[in-house]
UniProtKB/TrEMBL annotation:
Name this protein carries in UniProt: Metabotropic glutamate receptor 4
Residue ranges of domain G-protein coupled receptors family 3 profile in the record: 85-319
Compartments where found: Cell membrane
InterPro entries named in the record: GPCR_3, GPCR_3_9-Cys_dom, GPCR_3_9-Cys_sf, GPCR_3_C, GPCR_3_CS, mGluR
PROSITE patterns: G_PROTEIN_RECEP_F3_2, G_PROTEIN_RECEP_F3_3, G_PROTEIN_RECEP_F3_4
Bilayer topology term: Multi-pass membrane protein
Keywords carried by this UniProt record: Cell membrane, G-protein coupled receptor, Glycoprotein, Membrane, Receptor, Transducer, Transmembrane, Transmembrane helix
Residues passing through the membrane, by range: 85-111, 123-142, 154-170, 249-270, 282-304
Gene name tied to this protein: GRM4_4
Organism field: Xenotaenia resolanae
Pfam families: 7tm_3, NCD3G
Length: 319
């Protein structure tokens, strides 16, 4: 037997087997009619080798390890403060807050001057508060989502805009009623005093707060991990996104009241475009509302055209 030679000149006895053992991460697929022979099939995608003959899918929050012999947790990502998507909005927000505070300090310093009084200082302070909240909400959008942060997002995401638009709407409506009343009578219209204007403004703002309270009652705020958004074909690229449980529909409902105030204010701005040149408050308000409408018309399709990701949350912060 030592002198026997096999094909190819080999003197070693060849293995008398039908199939080679499968590598880790491969299952055996038996050949029909030949139970001792098999083909090796790799467990691909999100599958792992459960046993010798079976590949199974990993749980929704898991992905296979390198050799597909088991599952490991999918990494969790969130918007980091060091990310360019966060740094740019934060810088813009800081500059906006500084500019707003400078205006507030100027108003307080010259609170009793004719210019400040003529501008409607009460509503101006309300408007500046709304602008400040709009900038400050950026920090909430970048903060790590949890129940507390998500609750604050629901409250302040639309509140700052509602306060701003409510103040502008009350101002514009007051101007419109004064000039409309002047065409018919020399008497002043009702509810144009500073106290009345504040009551009207806060009544409009309370509608937004009431809607948020109803939302909390129907759907309590919570932070979730979305594994479907970043579930790519390549398991190595899969990520879970930590975010607040706010759907697109809920977001539109949240911002819808602000948009209603904005559109109504724009209508009154158009109606007051013919006021005398010396009464110049209506024209800047009109210009502001026209540009705001353009921004919102661009914002809605772009927002819903982007993916559900941290970039989308950041995009909202920048707007």
């Amino acid at each position: 037997t030592d002198e026997l030679q096999w094909p190819g000149g080999s003197q070693e006895v060849p293995s008398s087997i039908c199939s080679q053992p499968c590598r880790p991460g491969q299952r055996k697929k038996t050949v029909k009619g030949i139970p001792c022979c098999w083909h090796c099939e790799s467990c691909d995608g999100y599958q792992y080798q459960a046993d010798t003959y079976t590949c199974k899918m990993c749980r929704f929050d898991l992905r296979p390890n390198d050799n597909h012999t088991g599952c490991v947790p999918i990494p969790i990502v969130k918007l980091e403060w060091s990310s360019p998507w966060a740094v740019i909005p934060v810088l813009i927000a800081v500059l906006g807050i500084i500019a707003t505070l400078l205006v507030v300090v100027t108003f307080v310093r010259y609170n009793d001057t004719p210019i400040v009084k003529a501008s409607g200082r009460e509503l101006s302070y309300v408007l500046l508060t709304g602008i400040f909240l709009c900038y400050a909400t950026t920090f909430l959008m970048i903060s790590t989502p949890d129940v507390f942060v998500c609750s604050l997002r629901r409250i302040f995401l639309g509140l700052g805009m509602s306060i701003s638009y409510a103040a502008l709407l009350t101002k514009t409506n007051r101007i419109y009623r004064i000039f409309e009343q002047g065409k018919m009578s020399v008497s002043a219209p009702r509810f144009i005093s500073p106290a009345s204007q504040l009551v009207i403004t806060f009544s409009l703002i309370s509608v937004q707060l009431l809607g948020v309270c109803i939302w909390f009652g129907v759907d309590p705020s919570q932070a979730i991990i979305d594994y479907e958004d970043q579930r790519t074909a390549n398991p190595e690229m899969a990520r879970g996104v930590l975010k607040c449980d706010i759907s697109d529909l809920s977001l539109i409902c949240l911002l819808g009241y602000s948009m209603l105030l904005m559109v109504t204010c724009t209508v009154y701005a158009i109606k007051t475009r013919g006021v005398p040149e010396t009464f110049n408050e209506a024209k800047p308000i009109g210009f502001t509302m026209y540009t705001t409408c353009i921004v919102w018309l661009a914002f809605i399709p772009i927002f819903f055209g982007t993916s559900q990701s941290t970039e989308k949350v950041n995009f909202l912060s920048q707007i």
